[in-house]
């Protein structure tokens, strides 16, 4: 069967009709659809891209748009974090509709009201196809998406039903899935630049073998590059997660442990003096032929703790000549890719004034936020919209201010740590410096990007920096407080007995710097490699009872240490462990014992930490003996007690205690409680609707 016409077929008519208008056109004229495919399950949705009759579009333009966003061109966006939010803010006045695929109420969805949003994961092929079916174009605000399904949509389209007829719909995808796939793999990305035929300097790199061969590979890298060198996960990394600086052969084992089983590559250390970034708008025609690459000014990016914290435009103490070279290089790099849109090019400025490409992001980028105010006629977000929709873009991008500084607002030690900073931004009015506050309406978590402030001026960047000092000082103070709190709570410095958690810097599920990811929680927890909970038992026979609790700790990503400390057989060792636990960074102790269960109480007498006793049912007396031994502690030596054998509650209580000072754990606990409530509601509904007989039959299965 022939495929349905490509949207590009409409190009010859001057512009594309939006899907909604086309649907109405089809409905009004009962136009016979050509080249119909018969998919198994067409999406019950409105759009198609089938070619309308000549002259039809002018009439359609005059129709009233009663429905929300009716008639606007729809861009389907995979991901709805702050980049998507700012894209929506740019789209709103332009009459462009953005359909977001992400969690309910994601930051971008809050900024754009439409009935086309899709709830779900941007990694879910089914949801991506659903989004495609209701969009004129597809784009992304995050590169870690399923490119297989995007390729499938480009090649085979998605079936949509329009007024009872089935058509194949192929929204153009920008940037191309080819670009996304290439960029997802940092190693291949740079191999591509190397073999592009253009002069694109990159750091020397070698792929690292997996499994047992990894060590030999690392030795080879050490020999070839010298030390230090950078070991990087090829895929899924962001904000420095997934990178490991290898200082010597001694780091090999830790590096392999930290980066786990992911495909890795090693990169020669780049002794940079500054990091620069350039945003580039890439346009191409509907046949995929490059039209133009237009560069924004070069900026200086400051990374602290592997996160971009500040951006300076123009870069401080960098000559115009180097800035121009950076822009030219960035356009060269982006010209080798595929599809339309804005791209960020991260680069290193080396001591000898040469430039080296670090990596590319195929989307709006943190280093381009400043363009909202500094290049207001074509911010990076407006540029993304214009490029994707093939609308005009300027052939030069000159800022409308002399200098600009962007400061990220990162979540601090406490949920309100940033309030002084946002308050200062709200209350500062200065003839020589304009202040623009952006908050993303994301819950504050330590190090999370929750907003940014852009400062602009008609003075040198150094003068602007001096004027911006109160802002910069507050940003730095929030960071210092966060680091201090983190080192006190999540990063105890001393060793304890064994840890169930992987080492620091382990990569997490793909996400980007901008995205609201469920995984942020586990990432945050994973950033602590030292145990927070000590789980100890009087005898190894208690271990099976503790398993349920250990599973809970794992589920919540709580690092824990295990030990056997018998109150009667190893009393000295038990007291030593109890005495040293707090100093080793442990925050809560879970102690399980059966029979004459003195362990929890004895530990409690020796430590200032909260101790939760788990009474274990021993051979005789049904565990009542254990329970009473633990619960009947004398005044002054409090010891929490859970039900007999109920290590689940011991673990949950431990997490609640941690949650009192680590917001992530409290948040996770809330979610756990909501999930538990939902599970009971589902059961109740099933019982009410199906009756007891059917329910019991179901339970027997
Ligand atoms: P991410 O995906 O987290 O942005 P990058 O590969 O860009 O990861 O690395 C994060 C930061 O680590 C860079 O901005 C730079 O500061 C530093 N870095 C990365 N690669 C190298 C290198 N080869 N040499 C020195 N520093 C590097
Ligand atoms: Mg980077």
Quick gist of this model?
With 701 residues, the chain is of the alpha/beta class. Helix content is 36%, strand content 21%. It is globular.
Characteristics:
lyase, 36% helix, 21% strand, alpha/beta, Phosphoribosylaminoimidazole carboxylase, five-stranded parallel β-sheet, binds adenosine-5'-diphosphate, 701 residues, ATP-grasp_carboxylate-amine, binds magnesium ion, ATP-binding, disordered N terminus, single chain
β-strand amount: 15-25%
Walk across the major sheet and give the strand order: 15-14-11-12-13-16-18-17
Structural class: alpha/beta
Number of helices, counting only DSSP H or I runs of 4 residues or more: 23
N-to-C span: 46 Å
Q: What is the general shape?
A: globular
- How many beta-strand elements? 23
- The stretches of 5 or more residues where confidence is low (pLDDT under 50) are 1-16, 27-40, 44-66, 490-528
The ligands bound in this entry are: adenosine-5'-diphosphate, magnesium ion
Region (Disordered): 1-74, 486-513
Family: In the C-terminal section; belongs to the AIR carboxylase family. Class I subfamily.
Domain ATP-grasp: 192-389
Biased composition (Polar residues): 486-499
